[in-house]
Structure prediction request, 384 residues.
Amino acid sequence: MVLKGIKLRIYPSPAQQLEIKLNFGYNRFVWNQMLNMMRNRHENNPQAPFLNAFALNSLLPALKREYPWLKEAESTSLQSTCHDLVAAFQKFFKETNVGFPKFKSRKFPKQSYNVKFSGTSLAIKSEHIIRIPKVGLMSFRAGSEITGQLKSATIKLSATGKYYAVLLVEIEVLPFAKTSQAVGIDLGVTDLMITSDGKKHPTIRFDKHLAKKKYYWEKRLARRRRQAQKEIAWDHQNEVPAPRELSDFKNYQQAKLMVAKYNEKIANQRRNYLHQLTIQLVKQYDVIKIEDLKTKNLLKNHQLARAIANQSWREIRRQLAYKCAWYGKQLVLVNPWKTSQLCANCGYDDGKHGLSIREWTCPNCKTNHDRDVNAAKNILAATA
Ligand SMILES: [Zn+2]
Prediction:
């Protein structure tokens, strides 16, 4: 049994949208209250043991007594929020690049809360109708078939103003047929993936396809923000009783929405492309070997093409990891050594090849190598 996320676009009525937004607020409030409490606790006594999700949950009734309107919240969502906060702290303590958990703002463009599935409160009622606890029945659209047992749902509002429910379902996945094939994959910048079979999958710059339109709105966004800020400053200087805020400027909000829309489109296109590539690999091969990204040069890089490549590599590894686990295949992370200088045919070390050298001939066995395909072959041959 594995857990799978299924994303639904949901269509709440205006009253239901309000109910959903209230729940965002309740959960944001609980997050901020608990975070504040944990910070104070740590400041007062750095030796105090770290509170777990169970301990935080046990504080919820007291919080509800103090703030009675919290009783209106979907109750499993508050527990989920406590759980997420503890997870954020654990991540902060364990991993090096993770910051201290932050307070959540009402102005953050993406909002969400999570509800657990219990009995009949959250359920798919028919092909197009879902019931969300405390919110009620509404229609939905799903990209894929909904099967398996519902565990929970995350209700989300995107930066572009669309509502989603991401269902977590427990399903049984049938493994793919075995093929007895193995492959080594070199990850690159111009070509995103090069396989040891000699196949090259290009990097597609989805951001460039939409760049003109996005740039058009980015320019407007910057100009409208400047204009709005000027007018807000004027309000303050003249002590207007209710000075305007950025949210009062409709044309600024519109530009912000359009930029978010294009970013969302670009991200979706890129993710779909990577899904196609990784599912193909998992179907075709039993063993997939890629470089351990830790060894790859993931330096902070300001070059856009390189930054996009780094992001795509991480996403490829993430997708391959769970798809291999689901479908009974094996992902091997190898620590490649001299992949671009050793001959994959005879093992001769030809010394460093600069990035500009795209092909070379082994002086020992006379094999002509494509630089990247040779590297992928070395990855296939490498031991973990
Ligand atoms: Zn050779």
